[in-house]
Amino acid sequence: xxxxxSDYMAGAHPEVMARLAETNGEHTVGYGCDGYxxxxxxxxxxxxxxxxxxxxxxxxxTQTNATVIDGILSRHEGVIAAESGxxxxxxxxxxEATGHKILTLPSHCGKLVASxxxxxxxxxYSDDTYEHMVAPGMVYISFPTEYGTVYTLEELTAIxxxxxxxxxxxxxxxxRLGYGLAADGNNVTLKNIARLCxxxxxxxTKVGALFGEAVVITNPDILKxxxxxxxQHGALLAKGRLLGVQFEALFTDGLYERIARDTVRKAxxxxxxxxxxxxxxxxxxxxxxxxxxxxxxxxxxxxxNASFEMWGPRGETESVVRFVTGWATTDxxxxxxxxLL
Amino acid sequence: xxxxxSDYMAGAHPEVMARLAETNGEHTVGYGCDGYxxxxxxxxxxxxxxxxxxxxxxxxxTQTNATVIDGILSRHEGVIAAESGxxxxxxxxxxEATGHKILTLPSHCGKLVASxxxxxxxxxYSDDTYEHMVAPGMVYISFPTEYGTVYTLEELTAIxxxxxxxxxxxxxxxxRLGYGLAADGNNVTLKNIARLCxxxxxxxTKVGALFGEAVVITNPDILKxxxxxxxQHGALLAKGRLLGVQFEALFTDGLYERIARDTVRKAxxxxxxxxxxxxxxxxxxxxxxxxxxxxxxxxxxxxxNASFEMWGPRGETESVVRFVTGWATTDxxxxxxxxLL
Amino acid sequence: xxxxxSDYMAGAHPEVMARLAETNGEHTVGYGCDGYxxxxxxxxxxxxxxxxxxxxxxxxxTQTNATVIDGILSRHEGVIAAESGxxxxxxxxxxEATGHKILTLPSHCGKLVASxxxxxxxxxYSDDTYEHMVAPGMVYISFPTEYGTVYTLEELTAIxxxxxxxxxxxxxxxxRLGYGLAADGNNVTLKNIARLCxxxxxxxTKVGALFGEAVVITNPDILKxxxxxxxQHGALLAKGRLLGVQFEALFTDGLYERIARDTVRKAxxxxxxxxxxxxxxxxxxxxxxxxxxxxxxxxxxxxxNASFEMWGPRGETESVVRFVTGWATTDxxxxxxxxLL
Amino acid sequence: xxxxxSDYMAGAHPEVMARLAETNGEHTVGYGCDGYxxxxxxxxxxxxxxxxxxxxxxxxxTQTNATVIDGILSRHEGVIAAESGxxxxxxxxxxEATGHKILTLPSHCGKLVASxxxxxxxxxYSDDTYEHMVAPGMVYISFPTEYGTVYTLEELTAIxxxxxxxxxxxxxxxxRLGYGLAADGNNVTLKNIARLCxxxxxxxTKVGALFGEAVVITNPDILKxxxxxxxQHGALLAKGRLLGVQFEALFTDGLYERIARDTVRKAxxxxxxxxxxxxxxxxxxxxxxxxxxxxxxxxxxxxxNASFEMWGPRGETESVVRFVTGWATTDxxxxxxxxLL
Lengths: 341, 341, 341, 341
Prior knowledge:
Four copies of one chain form a homotetramer. Chain A is α/β, with parallel strands linked by helices. The first copy, chain A, has 14 helices and 13 strands.
């Protein structure tokens, strides 16, 4: 069996796992106050070109989204997000559980458009009854999106400007950030990300770590008491150095980039193979998630030897499927898949 | 330097780490739906003597407490706990953040007393204005407590009866459960715990795992929709099998008990050494946390070679300190400490 | 100046005000435990044909919606509502502030459609990832809707059946219930409402009272601890008998119906006048709220002598406006408006 | 029967009721944007000697406390209050429902002591683990307290200084403010109150209004978006001018003070009568609430002709009772009570 269900099916990249094993017996203080965590934070600040950024390590994406958003918003505010945004669909109401509404805008293959954000904010404040409604308090986008797509530098800059003109922070969910940066044709750098938003996170869980998300706060005026919030949200790991050790490994010798580039390369091989066979691409994704529309009999045949997810309900004759590569996907897996097609 | 700050300073017990390394490259489905997690749940059900118990694995203690308590309580209810309870002191308001009041009762070396719980509930309902107050909806205790003490089987049975007579669930925080079961003079078994409460958890983080807490729900009428709550609380690990692999290891060949017994044995060696030197025991703990009152100059001298925590503020001439052992504490560490005393 | 802004511009209907004045000096116990409140509850039970219904009186609509919805939903559940629902648009996030997502469906002139509710629920549970999403835990509709429209008995019955088949409660926001029952062509009675839903409220604020909403709970299995929830939500009036006195007046000698019928009659006179002048009706409302599309110069001219609200932003040449009648609107006011058209 | 249960048993003071009746038929805009409300706000600003204060009118005390506290606190903060504080005891968990812990300090006949507040804050920040605990974010006191006692100007000034030194707001619950200002021996003025705290409210419900609490915000840096919070908390009255009309009446010709002084005078007559009979005063209250310890047979005898509340459980031979006067208490009522003693 070959696996393309998701990028969190295997453990950690061997170089990450090796560092966890090497350091396993050491004693350090807990809660991320150890030297590994400090070093990892420094490496990330450097990679982001943001010397004064505050860096915190949390365990998973949903908890990171909830902790950041709850920490930024005032009680009367909500968060603007795409209809398709992970926080709006697949986090079991974690944001609302903190008391905040998600203000949804149309998804353009997972992306928001700057002009639509601006129009929403303008319309809001020109409505006489706006104080009876939930005020837009921040913008959430994901890079890459839930559909594997990425913003261009121009799109991202435009969104950043809209946010800053409106005086509301921009938050980027980077659960798969590495794959976005490594995307085919991408013109956005990690330094761009760090400069254009107020807070974002660098996903580890889906890019080679056992788990872990590195939150980078570049706006000094927000999230001033983030540590107790992490604790309150149950997102503070007792053996916090496990996060430091992993991110130190990921940001040493370019491991994070290497994993991401190699994973995307394999996804694009796979994409080409499907296209060569004439199967239509459902979303034109340049990252490690690929979406195709396949005849149901092809799906059924492939499933005998390959594992992957349906994307939405099964259609009458054809359905959309998702194939995802990860650090543990091998070129041999892709070769096998190609022979199966 | 020798370390006695806490039981979460080192990584995982080598047998646990070995299993993580062995299984690292495998592909499994996420979110705890894999075979390792199912097997670990089965081993735990067996150890608890509860064939029908539902078992879930979360990452850390604070998130487990918040998820369980939020899931059990109705909106008008609060949770009874000792003043000294972890949820009341050291979880940054995680319970209140879910909308619930903690109804505190006096702490008797960390423990609640059945008769005081009963009196509280009786007084509550005999007050004419009780519908203007927060109703007691469950009881939270820890085993062992934050002071390292344990309930006797008789005490626990009495609390269980009070709860069941009042129709409210009993929840046991077992973040250090192993050390309680292995405590000097303890007459409570894991099966007793499972039978006497409605839900409890078996702490992994502090007893040999990298992280992880196994929630065991024995009352079929509570927490019927626990999975989405775990997700909503940000407590669902994407690579969920990491929890399954660790708990499978801990519940194979009695590893969990072995770790706990050996760790408690070392703590009691340490306790005897302090007592032999004439230093008063602050709390008479039979588990892996030990509390002593030491002259400040002794504290300062020890600190040159040993790491440990102050327990409360520094006094004028003497102060209370905490020494904790863990799986990674060695007999050599204890020997060294004894020579330093 | 003549006023058509809303139905909460004047005080209470004179018969209600008279009763408040007559009883003003009396001493009664607080919090709705007085005889007036008990009597009003009895009158309402009788009018609803529901002898066992529990009746509570709250002050305003938003607090009633939040208290009922928060009381019904489990933590992992959300409430289905129309995009245009008052709880989704104009309650400043009151529902989300209690921790719950609003699951929106398309608005058909303010109404939900039974088949779309059913499809939503069916699709939800057929999605493999449904435990990562917010479960539909109840349905919220308004009668009449925010657009003044009403459900037919057939439509309401179909929605009720979908809810009961799915095992989730149906809640009807009756902030303007009287006007719905008095609507032109309406075939739904108060007894139908009470029978078809699990909980609803009879709006007083907009139908002749100073303030007040009467919550009627017909399903004995929900909202079992509603009193402390009212208190917790800050919705418990200290001088609770003020609500009892008002609703006793409204449900004596058919005052509630009389107010509603007369108010709707005046709205329909107004509607005919606009139609006679050739101004298009924006929403074909049979109740006391009327929506027209008017040339901007007509709007500007009318505004010199009449007060009313814009409905949405001002268009380039024409805009939508809302005219609302209330108990204090007179036929003379309508006559004056007609001469102004 | 004569009534001493509480100060919210009768309707509004006749002068207030008269103004409601006079203005009943007028049309005004809703939600407190009308002229009466503006005028009332102006009168209150003047009475407080705070020209720039922002004044809002809410319906009841619990909702006011929850809205103010939720609006001030950051997510990681709690509110310091006396154990006996209304928010801690009798608001059904309304504060915790907004996500915040109440940090209790000992009650000294209902009062906090400045030095104990300071010690709490100092100890908090000197604890190494303070970021794992709930930070003190504001102080809540009541004037007069739940026991009818009042702070001296010196005590209040000291608390104010502690708060301002610590950089946290002071909030005064003035549900019975008038009675505190009119208290026997009181040396605190309304202007003192307004100057020494950051936000407080002037209770109407218990001092002559049908309902209503006037929130006065004197610190320009807090509660900047209070209006949408009022709406979100369900505390925004649709016919908002009812609050304006009442407070305009209360702050015209010194009515608020007249009601308070006369009510306190009657309470003190009552107190003297009890003392003259030799019944011990339980709390030495200078305001309209009086607490006595009476033999149970006296209680039973009095209850045949007078209505009043038990204060705590019935004792074996004697019990504590509360007698409260209000605007509707007459000197004849006191005379009757005296003959009954």
